[in-house]
Amino acid sequence: MIQEFKKIWKPYAIGMLWLLGLLWPMLGIHADGTLTIHETVTVWSYILAGTAACLLIYIFKKSGHLDFAGDPVSRAVSRIKARTTTIPNWAWSLGFIVLACSYPLFADRYGTDVAINVLIYICLGLGLNVMVGLCGLLDLGYIAFYGVGAYAYALLNTVYGLGFWVCLPFSAFFACIAGCIVGYPTLRMRGDYLAIVTLGFGEIIRLILNNWMELTNGPNGILGIDPISIYLPVLENGLTFELFWMKKLHLLYYFVLALAVFTAIGIRHLNISRVGRAWESIREDETAAELMGVNTFIYKLLAYVMGAFFAGLAGAFFAARMRFVSPESFTFLESAMVLCMVVLGGMGSIPGIMLGVFALIVLPEVFREFENYRMLIFGSTMVIMMLFRPAGLIPAKRMGTRSDEREG
Amino acid sequence: MRLDPGSAASFYPPKFKKLCIMEYFIQQFVNGLTLGGMYALIALGYTMVYGVIQLINFAHGEFFAAGGYVGAITLGYLSGLGYMQTHPVLCLSAAFVFAMAYCAYLAVGVEKIAYKPLRKESRLAALLSALGMSIFLSNGMMLTQGVYDKIYPGEMFQGRFDFGTVAISYLQIMIIVLTALLLVGLNILVFKTKIGMAMRATAQDKTMSALVAIGSNKIISLTFAIGAGLAAAAGIMYGLYYGSVRYDMGFVPGIKAFAAAVLGGIGNITGAMIGGLIIGMVEVFGAGYLSSEYKDVFAFIILIGVLYFKPTGIMGENIDDTRV
Predict the structure, then answer these.
(1) Tens-place pLDDT, residues A137-146
(2) Of A27, A34, A193, which has the smallest distance from its Cβ to B144's Cβ?
(3) C-alpha torsion sign, points A80, A85, A86, A92
């Protein structure tokens, strides 16, 4: 333990002093010509206490002093794991779906609302996962596809009066077109150039939505979008079909649940198919993939189109649920948030992304009083995950077995 | 060619119009030079860091914003003490020095925390870490300095020269001159001194430069410090020019400066300067002659066009496969 401590205290102390030097000009110099130190020291000591506590736990764990508490827990976990591995995957999924279906029965309005948010972000996270997790293409303008889907429904509905179900495929289609438009010129690039170009495209789409007054009503947004409608059979005077608006929150919840399940199943099937293997090979080594006869350009474009497709579906639902869209919902910070969820949960892992979304939507709702620190925590989460656990909370399992694994 | 209704040209009768178009052009040219100089200063940070460690430093825009804030804080403090009224030039110099030092300090720490441990990992990891750092820093500024625009205490520097209808403010002259000085200074540092030679050697080959006793960690820190210092200077200029700073102001100029760095050929210092000037000019002329609403789009279109047709940029050498 002493060894661990010796190794770590020096960089930690330097880091903390650096932070103090960083905070003081921001907090301690005032425009009335006074210099103070106490606010700085207060903020700094909070941070010091928090980080020191984390560090102590880390040192204790590393040097094995927490084993007395950890051992029973880890033994119990492994026992549960041994039990649960015998349960087939379909039973897990079924259990989750039953749980999710019964959720609105005992949740209040607020709880349902949060759950709808979680499910929308699950759709988005899984869609982004196709690009980032499966194919290894970092897209920082992903939310633009969501915006295209939302605006497609909003405009088709308010201008042409088309209903939700007609527009849903159109929303997805327009998002796919946007994916092609972004993907076609950018996919010759790799890695970080691609990231910044997609960021640029995301901003261009947002600026167009913001400035094209005649079409999108600019920053004021589009009001009065119809909610989702279904025709229900009515048996009163003969069998007629009557228009029924899905305005009730729990109906919306079931719809978005279906959408999320559809997205998850679709992405799972893409992942284990030939396409998914091609994506994985591109992610691991593009040159090698090309040599093995994978048409990298087509598959990368397909990754874009599929990611955009799911974002477009989610976007149409978003417009129908809010009944209002404005460019403010589709800023870069939203993209970064979705990306943070994917990174936190584990790139390429469907349960991981669900957990990531859950953590980053539900926890801020629980700790409402720390609302202002939300983005700060998102940012630091991304850095910390990359430093300590780059594969995410639930790392993705590799599909199939490799030859070297099979031999060993 | 369509002129903005508010521009100088529309006030004059048609027979002067030709003259006015010329003057409008000169006015826009000066504005473009001012803006382009700032972009060049930011772009240098991107290009230098990319040259040394092949990482797009997403947090660079935040260094720019932090510089703007520290400048505003320093100027506010000094004007609170009453020195601004008596020695404005001295105070401004103090603000520049302090902000540049602060951002260099910030950048060195950020590099040590978020980038150095990931140097051997995949590019995606470093990129995501940089993105996280950028979000973290901009929200840290929001929490310490407030959500609203911070007004820049720069009334001292108002005033302008009038040449007919062309007006050049003192601020613009100050910005252009100072930018030129910084660029010349940087060129001397990089191309004429031992440190600059070490930086160029590290950028070319880290292993070989380590063999001739150049500590690459020190050089990387130094590169980050210099880049952030230049961005901080640009931040103060931006704040003085537009009259206020905001916690998220680093985002859009950051991308435009990145576009400038790519246009000039990433990793190439002279290219970044030229690229910055071109992006500034295109933005100003685009806003003046085409459409002011879409002025942010032009830089992005240039970025995409350059990456598509000539990824090496204007001055860039051939980039091998690992870099693109």
Answers:
(1) 888 889 999 9
(2) A27
(3) positive
- The answer to whether the Cβ–Cβ distance between B69 and A382 falls below 8 Å is no
Residues counted in chain B: 324
Residues of B in contact with A332 (CB under 8 A): 251
Query: Cβ–Cβ of A22/B105 closer than 8 Å?
Result: yes
Q: Would B28 be classed as within a structural domain?
A: no
In a domain, B286, yes or no: no
Residue B164 lies inside a defined structural domain of this protein: yes
Nearest to A196 among B77, B132, B255 (CB): B255
Higher pLDDT, A72 or B58: B58
Q: Name which of A30, A138, A383 is nearest B129 (Cβ-Cβ).
A: A383
Query: Distance between CA atoms of A343 and B125, rounded to whole angstroms?
Result: 10
- Sort out which chain A residues have CB atoms less than 8 A from B125's CB and list them: 386, 390
Cα B174 to Cα B287: distance, rounded to the nearest angstrom = 23
- Position B11 pLDDT exceeds 60: no
DSSP letter at A87 equals: S
Does the residue B75 lie in any domain?
Answer: yes
DSSP string across B58-84: TTHHHHHHHHHHHHHHHHHHHHHHTHH
User: Is the pLDDT score of A408 beyond 50?
Assistant: no
Cβ–Cβ < 8 Å for A223, A324: yes
Q: Is the CB of A376 less than 8 angstroms away from the CB of B132?
A: no
At what angle are helices B60-81 and B123-145 packed, to 10 degrees? Answer: 20
Cβ contact, residue pair A379, B132, below 8 Å: yes
What is the distance between the alpha carbons of residues B155 and B79, in angstroms, rounded to a whole number?
A: 11
| Phi (first) and psi of residue A4, to 5 degrees | -60, -45
Q: Does A342 touch chain B (CB under 8 A)?
A: no
In A249-308, the residues whose Cβ lies within 8 Å of chain B are 287
Q: Where are the domains of chain A?
A: 2-76, 115-407
Best mutation target among A129, A192, A210 (most B Cβ atoms within 10 Å) is A192
Name residues whose C-beta falls within 8 Å of residue A307's C-beta, 6 or more positions apart in sequence.
Answer: A127, A128, A129, A130, A131, A139, A142, A145, A179
ipTM: 0.85
Minimal Cα–Cα distance from B232 to chain A, Å?
A: 14
**pLDDT per residue as tens digits for the range B108-148:** 999 999 998 888 887 788 888 998 999 999 999 999 888 88
Q: Which amino acid is at A99?
A: L
Q: Would you place residue A211 in the very low, low, confident or very high pLDDT band (cuts 50, 70, 90)?
A: confident
| Residue A366, Cβ density class (10 Å: 0-12 exposed, 13-18 middle, ≥19 buried) | exposed
Spelled out in words, what is the top-level CATH class assigned to the domain A115-407?
mainly alpha
CA dist A267 and A304 (Å) reads 13
Q: How many domains does chain B have?
A: 1
